[in-house]
User: Fold this.
Amino acid sequence: MSTPESATPARTPPEPDLRFNIGDAADSLERMRELYARFGDIYRVYSPARHRYAYVINHPDDVKRVLVTNHANYHKGFGLDRVKMLLGNGLVTSDGEFWRSQRLMMQPMFHRRVIAQFGAMIDAANDRLMARWDQLAGGDEAVNVTDEMSELTLEVILRSIFGDDLDRLTRELGGNPFELITREPTRDLTFAYRFRQLRKLVSELAARRRSEPGEHFDFIGMLVSTRDRNTGAPMGERELVDEVMTLIIAGHETAAATLNAAWYLLSQHPEVEQRLHAEIDAVTDAGLLSLNAAESLPYTRSILVETLRLYPPVWLYSRRTLGPDVLAGYHTPAGVDVLLSSYLLHRHPQFWSDPEAFRPDRPEAQLEAKRPRFAYVPFSAGPRHCIGETMAMYEMTLHLYRFARRYRLCYPPRQPMELEALINLRTRHPLMMRLQRR
Ligand code: HEM
Assistant:
């Protein structure tokens, strides 16, 4: 890797003699894997649909430059038009000064002190799932783990946003109006249209919170009470609804995909499962696992860390250069796309030994000092890193802790999980697993 100073600005990175819409094409991950094998840590591909080049990077130093040290030179890249239709201008899709002020207003909502208080709510959602699974355990029917994880994480994010109003709404409307998110996995225009119909409900719920300030502990209440640090103004109505829609999608699918992959990996690695059982069975206090206690289960945590390494749900980050930059020693003009795939970075052979293997006790995963910080970015890094990381890790640890204490999930060995890499990385087909009481 050359430093920006040693670059020869006129040099352009290698490129294949084919043009395609990298990142949009359904087989982008496979093609990127091939192109990485041919060209290494940087190459560029012309996208006919976007009429511009995408520079694809895969070295931790360049990842650091784009996400952290020179982040001000980058805005969110392509693909956002589709996502914007769904989410509006929330934290995931916004940029510049607007993004900064929204992020500042929302950052305190994700403080550990707040997230710690969601523990009982997450536990209760797990209780309800467990009551259902207890009926199924030992039977012949397989459990659709993909759907179950999707429902669980949807419930958690909805309750963290709407609190008890979720039950009221479900009663009044004769069903949970947000269920379409799990029922309709395809994120197409029809879904976007139906999802947008829910905006009115969110506005009504926000209005309720405005009339009952301080009586509820949930994100929508916090969004209603937050104030701009400089102007003291509350968040606008439309902006607030955009942020709620964003939290629902960003907080739900990612955690669901990770838990799904974790159960798959555990079923294929009995030795890892045994060590997990040993760690969680040794906890004698049967009460709620606090945030601190959850973070003190090192092996359980490293299972999630390693799952996120192999199957990062946000598998592709896209950015666009505002001004020129130098990446891997190559001139990178203004107005081009820069792509990085955490999926490929997390399997970079220079930084990960036996990169395809699931090894929660791998030294690089355990000891952050043993790997370059930017070879592992499942939650991104720098100012745009995931605001929900602490919540996600707590939610996922609590689930594994509760459920692995009680059940084993079995999946035919050596039947590999097939992946689908679209906006998020997920399983192409639902995982049907047999449930056993331990
Ligand atoms: C395993 C679970 C999760 C993973 C792997 C994950 C991953 C990520 C990544 C990689 C980004 C940055 C994307 C980019 O820069 O292009 C991101 C951003 C974001 N995530 Fe998460 N996320 C998870 C859970 C959550 C949860 C639970 C919430 C909310 C409750 C959440 C809310 C957000 C938001 C609002 C952003 C945009 C932040 C910004 O740009 O300021 N995420 N997430």
Summary: The domain at 4-437 is CATH 1.10.630.10 (Cytochrome p450). Confidence is low (pLDDT under 50) at residues 1-7. Residues 91-92, 103, 157, 246-247, 250-251, 254-255, 258, 308, 313-314, 317, 378-380, 384, 386-388, 391-392 surround protoporphyrin IX containing FE (CB under 6 Å). The two ends are 51 Å apart (CA to CA).
